Amino acid sequence: MRVRGSLLLVAALVAATGCASASGGGDGTGHSSPPSPKLASLVRAARLAPCPASSSADLPDGLPNLTLDCLGNGPSVHLAGLRGPAVVNVWGSWCGPCGKEAGYLSTVYDEDRGRVTFLGIDTEDSVSDGLAFGTAVRPPVRYPSVSDPDRKFLIDLAKAPGPPETAFVGTSGRVVHVHLGAYDSAAELRADISTYLGVT
Length: 200
Fold this sequence. Notes:
- The protein is α/β, with parallel strands linked by helices.
- The protein is 33% helix and 16% strand.
- The chain has helices at residues 3-13, 37-46, 96-112, 127-136, 152-157, 186-197; strands spanning 67-68, 77-78, 86-91, 117-123, 145-148, 165-169, 175-180.
- Strands 5-4-3-6-7 form a five-stranded mixed β-sheet, sandwiched between helices.
- Helix 2 (37-46) packs parallel to helix 4 (127-136) and helix 3 packs across helix 6 (186-197).
- The relative contact order is 0.23.
């Protein structure tokens, strides 16, 4: 069964694990005009790694064919052109379980930097709230994120009710696994990286 087809079935069974949105979307800043001084200050304070490069190629079983603006530094990311091994985590600053698991993701990112690409997808959020979110987590979130104020990623990938959700992308760009709901420990995330991405 293709990954996207199976995700629809899984998402229906775990609808209670996601957050319901409390936000109306982005703050309209985008990247078409220079950021305000406040927003520029938040970008500096967040100290996020640059967003990863991506190709223009698409795969039938890859990430959705979406191009999203980098939340902090770097170019927009064409998700369908992202190659792994990669961990792609959907989150929102308004989502309680996302805040709980963010520290685990940050810990594993710091350990695996250079071996596994980490990318966050900040959904249904303002840019300023998204940037502020990672600085409150311990350890702080330094891996990059893209902004998805209109929830396009969740709608396209799995019809899931909301974050947190984590997709694992293999070296070919194929989505090899999706974990719905929050991780309860860094060890649980490490185990999935080993199992689905072959990185130990």
